[in-house]
Amino acid sequence: MRRVNGLAAICRAVGGVAVAPSALGNHAHQHHRLFQAALFSTTSNNNSSARSHWFSNNSISGDQTARAAARTVAGTMLFSVAATTLVEEVHAKEPVQSKFRPKDVVLYQYEACPFCNKVKAFLDYYDIPYKVVEVNPINKKEIKWSEYKKVPILMVDGEPMVDSSDIIDKLTKKIHPDVSPDSVVKDNEEKKWRGWVDNHLVHILSPNIYRSASEALESFDYITSHGNFSFTERITAKYAGAAAMYFVSKKLKKKYNITDERAALYEAAESWVDALNGQEFLGGTKPNLADLAVYGVLRPIRYLKSGRDMVEHTRIGDWYSRMENAVGVSSKIQA
Ligand SMILES: N[C@@H](CCC(=O)N[C@@H](CS)C(=O)NCC(=O)O)C(=O)O
Fold this sequence. Notes:
Layout: E1 2-4, H1 6-15, H2 25-30, H3 32-38, E2 41-44, E3 52-54, H4 64-76, H5 82-87, E4 105-109, H6 114-125, E5 130-134, E6 153-156, E7 159-162, H7 164-175, H8 184-209, H9 213-226, H10 231-255, H11 261-276, H12 289-298, H13 305-313, H14 316-327, E8 332-333
The chain binds glutathione (GSH).
Residues 12-13, 16, 52, 54, 110, 113, 115, 149-152, 163-165 line the site of glutathione (GSH).
Domain GST C-terminal: 221-335
EC number: 5.3.99.3
Catalytic activity: prostaglandin H2 = prostaglandin E2; prostaglandin H2 = (12S)-hydroxy-(5Z,8E,10E)-heptadecatrienoate + malonaldehyde
């Protein structure tokens, strides 16, 4: 069975997870038509992983403007507040030496997908130039050639790599072909915290950035004002998207047993600072893969209210600033 399910698309996109339509409840159902105006996907439940195909045009009826807005917001809904870091102060970055210099690296992504941002943080830190192809989440035509239908996908000199953590593992092996034996203890810590990012931290993000009506609007205001929207599309996308995500975030809270999303975010931030154990980075004087992973997934929310609150109410700010310095400017190049 296939059905229109814009909400799964959004939450999957933002937090890398999907919510079953049945989990949406009556309240959300009443807003279904509104959501349809902005965000659609079809979800096939023919397997347990509920593989989602975003924004199937076949299943959508309605006026073209709303549909166009839906498409556009889908492409940019995850538009990262990370972009604001580009207009922030430009930091000097410590050059990272590596013999690994691929000629052609292409990242297929959604701009604010936390997993894509994790890969970008890695590429930026290692000064690996990469081109970005923004994938259209409706038809995913940019990745038609790929059997794997999620992002990020990274092409490295023609070799496709998928899954953010696997991509980073593969690139790390290429950058550091010799693993030092005395790094084993630290590697365990690094591994543990990288797992924590994928299995815990990412799930806290959506409930926070869509926590209240005003925060959901702030998130979508940012998303739509940085995307390529006409006035009508912007308004449609902003309000319908914000409404949709407000309800989705409540379901995600339940799914991940989060009672107070802010408390969960602060607790995560504090646990991370505790893990640093007084060091500059988990990696010591330089970021390791866990530092890059935490930083990468937090970048999209850092300058939204939830990110500002997190920095104000926890001790994570100093580490975050150090990471901004260490990662430095983006090594993205024109496609
Ligand atoms: N485990 C994967 C998760 C990737 C993922 O869920 N990406 C989302 C975007 S944030 C996606 O492509 N969703 C679209 C879909 O599943 O159809 C990773 O770390 O790369």
